[in-house]
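Researcher: Let's continue the batch. This sequence belongs to DUF4153 domain-containing protein, and it's 414 residues. Same format as the previous ones, please.
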Amino acid sequence: MKNEIVNHLNEPAQLEKMYQANKLSFKREFNQLYAEVKGNPLVDFWNERLNYKSEEINWGTGRELTFIIIASILAGLIAKLPIFLSLSEETFYQRNIGFIIFPVLSAYFAWKNKLSTGKIAFIATTTLIGIIFINSFPVAKKSDTLILSCIHLLLFLWSILGFAFVGEKRNNDEKRLSYLSYNGDLVVMTTLILIAGALMTAITNGLFSLIGINIEKFYFDYVGIFGLAAAPIVGTYLTQTNPQLVGKVSPVIAKLFSPLVLVMLVIYLIAMVYSGKDPYNDREFLMIFNALLIGVMAIIFFSVAETSKMAKSSTEIWILLLLSIVTIVVNGIALSAILFRISEWGITPNRTAVLGGNILILINLLLITRQLFRVLSKKAEISVVGKTIAFYLPVYFLWTIIVTFIFPFIFGYK
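Model: Same format as before. Here are the structure tokens for DUF4153 domain-containing protein:
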């Protein structure tokens, strides 16, 4: 796209057409090019247009605010269903916690992106299938496949939300990367909202306790639950209407945590050798080890999504490359431990799920590492790394379908 921008620098209509076709890619390529071509009035105008940051909070339109308020109330009502219908809270939340937030957010992006009737029908149908399947699961005191289905159902719903987020865009890779960035921004914004909510709760309960009125139970049942359900919805709304709120925070977090996680991983692997702990014979340690692996993968994804938006120094690329290599080592240890446990004690739903997930992560890491090496060798641009991640995301979606809906039948709901 960079060459196309250069060729049409004096053609406003063509630049506008390119911008409307792919805003994110256009802005990234333009910002990389600007230092070489600034001084042209049209180029300077585009620079101001693309990089203008409003200092005021944009509260959106009345329709958007109404949608968010209704969506927040609806999410709170879903969270209160165990009370309204006298259901077991443990059973309900174990199976349905994802349906409190994800369908509402999917509806928001479907409305915001003006999705076609066919895509809306797909989102609604797949969500309904998930609800029916997980709630028709046989009740059992202990069922590994139920736990696996509940966990992977969250990833399934997260994937459907991504489908709604991408919308009708033809260049899905760019939008998938934007979806990863949105998740990082949402974590930051939701955390801030929850901290503010916790302070408000403490102050409110404290003030009422001073006058001898205990409102803790009432407050949590009728304000706290609705507030918890509304936090990611309001956070989503704020990140979408005011990207500048966390637009500078997320890249800093990505830049700060990547080297810290790299150092932590190296120290952890060395300490593991000296501690005598190993994931081959310790099941709980293996579970923690895999949780660590997933967390580091999430940081790599988020860092690459942020890095792909603009040109980066070779130092940052080196950090991502080394982090990927060390994570491959961690993945290799976890994978060998799973294979060892399968050879010793046989196939179980948990071991099969972890084995499949680790293999998929290993392949993804190898692809990412290869592209990062190509970037450092000047054989590719950093955007290629992002496209590799975006291209691979549907593979995880297919795996969540297998574990959520097919594993229970394969293993007889055990």
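Researcher: Any comment?
Model: Residues 159 and 397 are 6 Å apart (CA to CA).
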